[in-house]
Specification:
By secondary structure, the protein is of the alpha+beta class. It contains 9 helices and 5 strands; from the N terminus they run βββαββαααααααα.
Length: 204
């Protein structure tokens, strides 16, 4: 089992990463909550990982913190939630906001995440509420709001990268393009465009 990777960030095209570990390249899929906090290319990075084994592929998921991985592993245990949807959930809503939705029983915000219907939102709230209570009893710290923003990473193709990332996360191409082109894009990084588009998608 691959539990952690420490290496050089060779490529990143949300939600996909390539981590060079002493000459071996590991393909990793990461949620946007992790993607926002990545260093520049060719810089060292540490990811906590989860290996998903399917009949047709072995898929490695990477997370910036153990808490994010903890959430991911809890989400995939919810009935009807697989790794791809769990990745979409962690990308479409901040962990702290997700906790608030679960504790408040806020179905409306959860169903705006691609792939999450009403029944899935209900299951998420019921099953994750119990898990959150168990975590608190075990002394596991739940995520809280963090208003700090990462330094912008300017990309010539930031708009195209942002749209491609949103489509990869399950949003309709037309919506993804509409959301990104509706933002101020001059000199803005793809990561910031994705963040704002996802924020607007959930709020609207």
């Amino acid at each position: 089992m691959i539990s952690r990777l420490r290496g050089v960030l060779a490529q990143k095209q949300a939600p996909n990463l390539l981590i060079d570990v002493q000459g071996v390249g590991y393909e990793v899929q990461a949620p946007m909550s992790t993607f926002y906090k990545l260093p520049d290319l060719e810089q060292d990075v540490v990811l906590y990982t989860h290996l998903s084994i399917r009949d047709d592929a072995h898929v490695l998921f990477g997370f910036g913190t153990e808490t994010e991985r903890h959430f991911f592993r809890a989400l995939i245990k919810v009935n009807g939630v697989g790794p791809k949807l769990a990745l979409s959930i962690l990308s479409g809503i901040e962990p702290a906001d997700f906790v608030q939705c679960v504790q408040a029983g806020n179905h409306a915000q959860l169903v705006k995440i691609p792939g999450v219907g009403k029944k899935t939102a209900e299951r998420l709230i019921v099953e994750m509420r119990d898990k959150l209570e168990d975590w608190q009893q075990q002394g596991i710290e739940l995520p809280v709001q963090n208003n700090s923003s990462p330094a912008p990473l300017i990309s010539v193709s930031a708009v195209d990268d942002a749209i491609s990332a949103l489509i990869a996360l399950g949003y309709p191409p037309q919506k993804a393009s509409q959301w990104v082109h509706g933002l101020e894009t001059n000199g803005v990084s793809s990561e910031d465009l994705i963040r704002q588009a996802l924020k607007n998608a959930v709020v609207v």
